[in-house]
Write a structure and sequence with these properties.
alpha+beta; Alpha-Beta Plaits; 4-stranded antiparallel β-sheet; 4 strands; globular
Amino acid sequence: MITAELTVIPVGTSSTSLSNYVAAAVLALDKTGIKYKISGMGTQIESENMEDLFKAIASAHEAVIKEGANRVSTSIKIDDRRDTNRGLSDKVASVKKKLE
């Protein structure tokens, strides 16, 4: 399982609020069928393969441009673990178990 954290930031908008752009990016991810989880600072996504992961990232990036941003900065952090099949919820559960 490949997991990633994605942040798509429009640059030069007329407002400090970015929620419309974030919503456009999330709707684009939703259309790809990729599993995702939004947070206050980014979106976590997971996929079985890099091709689908990068297609989803590209769709989120393009959605922000289509929403009206003339410039977009996209940051991606990828965890490609191949020795076991662990998703986002597995990672969280592992930490919570250690906190008990």
